[in-house]
Here is the input.
Amino acid sequence: MIVFDIESCGLPESELLPFLPEFEPAKNLVDPVKIAASIEKQRAAFFEEAALSALTGKVVCVGFWTPQHEFTIFDAPQEEDVIQPVFDVLQSRLQNSEKVVGHWILGFDIPFLVQRAYRLGIHVPAALYEGRWWNSDIIDLVNIWNGPGGKHRISLDHLAKALGVGAKNGEGKDFARLWNEDRDAAFDYLENDCLLVKKCAEKMGIA
Here is the structure.
């Protein structure tokens, strides 16, 4: 079993402009000052949430925990140089029927990597798929926690606390700021997230 987690940041503002929606204030507002404030609030939220979509965000680093209890971070100035080695690891592990475990990786991490790869012209590993489905050796803790048919998206922090294995040391919405202001703190955040996933998986009997 290997554990992995990606971290993303929003693209530069110049690259976000083509995806910028037309913001409209609440219909009950008539005061021009309040209308302007409403639009500015929506605009700010758009940029703050840019990291959550492969259209407006990019992969900046990826962490792995291996069975040998080694933690590795892939990061590079160019996004391509982060995604390609990550794909190489996933291809190798999945080809050997090794479980790849993460939290919400089928809802975010894997699709985000694939979509960014399409945009950058990077070959997507065939091992990620089984026909038109994701490889069954990709294990998402959210799906395991919910069971068949469950749709509740439990946060990693709540899952870790519920299982008694620790807690997050920050919030994902702050990662872009950490990445730009304190790279060591950003790496610590990523390592802690990966460790929590590893501990949760072990507590849930995934090996």
Q: What stands out?
A: The chain has a mean pLDDT of 92. The two ends are 6 Å apart (CA to CA). The beta strands are 2-10, 57-65, 71-75, 100-102, 129-130, 133-134, 138-140. The first helix runs from residue 13 to 16.
